[in-house]
Amino acid sequence: THVEAWLGHLEASVSEPGAPVIGILGTGDFSRSLARRLVASGYQVVVGSRAPKRSGALFPEEAEVTSQMEAANQADLVFVAVFPEHHSTLVELKPALAGKTLVDVSNGLQIKLDGPSHAEQLADLFPESFVVKGFNTISAWTLQMGPRDGSRQVFLCSDSHKAKSSVMQLCRRMGFVPVDMGLLSSSLEIENLPLYLFPSWRIPILCTLLLFIFFYLYNFTRDILQPYIKSGKSVFYKMPIETVNVTLPSVALVMLALVYLPGLFAAFLQLWWGTKYNRFPNWLDRWLTGRKQFGLCSFLCAVLHAIYSLCLPLRNKWKTWLCHDLLQYVLSCYLIVYLFYITLEAVTCM
């Protein structure tokens, strides 16, 4: 499996000659995963701990676990992987860290609209060092599983171009994709990113809800309200199941169309420009990157339609041909779900 291959790669990895020494201050889950990933990428790793003897067994054999002062002296680049409220305990390392790059990986407990950020506070504590904000959006699990799993983007910002470039090079060597966010003043935005709940899902979920409301109101007006006004026929019992069931496939199909539509726009723009190297507009770029979410929302509507379809024979024909109808609906629903699954697989591989 990929995990076994990755672990085997970790065990076989040795530090490459001439590679910079990477220091890690902290011994938590993130520090351990980061050390494994750095060792696998060919770096010499030294970990600074307040209790080196107790923490040594938690890290790879290739990583040296020593005191914080010794790690700060040996390292060329240092990851500060301690809680922000404990940054002040590192002040005694200021002489050893002078002139070196510090990577702040901390996150806040809640969204902050006003600064200073944790990275800016760290820069104030270590004015002679070069602080880079980054790796706070990468989880320990992602570091362990390798570049095939999890998000590969690492958002970076710093007031030092040289320090930021060195961290970007390290990112690429670890298998990640660095994203330059500018100066350290952008660190507050980077620290808030992990606290937003499913940011890439907002537009797809909103589109799904709006489409559902639109088609439900249309079906309600056509199938329930119009017969009641014209002939006084009351069929309001259809609202919770039949009307919803008629609405869901319409939403699923429109959402599925929204998966493929941005690809058509992109192809048209490339033909119009005569090249594929121009950057797409921001709205189209966001649409293209959100196709997976649109596809999953479409798949959800199809699954709900299958469930509602199973409820109809139970309510309308529970006395006659129940088994026949159930079998027919199960087969049809299975076919619908299977087709959507195949479509979704094709979209995610694009």
What would your notes on this structure say?
The protein contains 14 helices and eight strands. The protein is an alpha/beta fold and 350 residues long. Helix 3 links the parallel strand 2 and strand 3. An eight-stranded mixed beta sheet has the order 3-2-1-4-5-6-7-8, sandwiched between helices. It folds into two domains: 194 residues, Rossmann fold; 150 residues, no CATH class. The longest helix has 35 residues. Helix 11 packs antiparallel against helix 13.
Key words describing this protein structure:
350 residues; alpha/beta; Rossmann fold; 2 domains; eight-stranded mixed β-sheet; 57% helix; 11% strand; elongated; flavoprotein; iron; STEAP3 metalloreductase
List the helices and strands and how they pair.
Elements: H1 2-12, E1 21-25, H2 29-40, E2 44-49, H3 52-55, E3 64-67, H4 68-74, E4 77-80, H5 94-97, E5 101-104, H6 118-125, E6 130-133, H7 140-145, E7 153-158, H8 161-174, E8 177-180, H9 187-192, H10 202-231, H11 239-273, H12 282-289, H13 291-316, H14 322-348
Helix pairs in contact: 1-2, 10-11, 11-13, 13-14
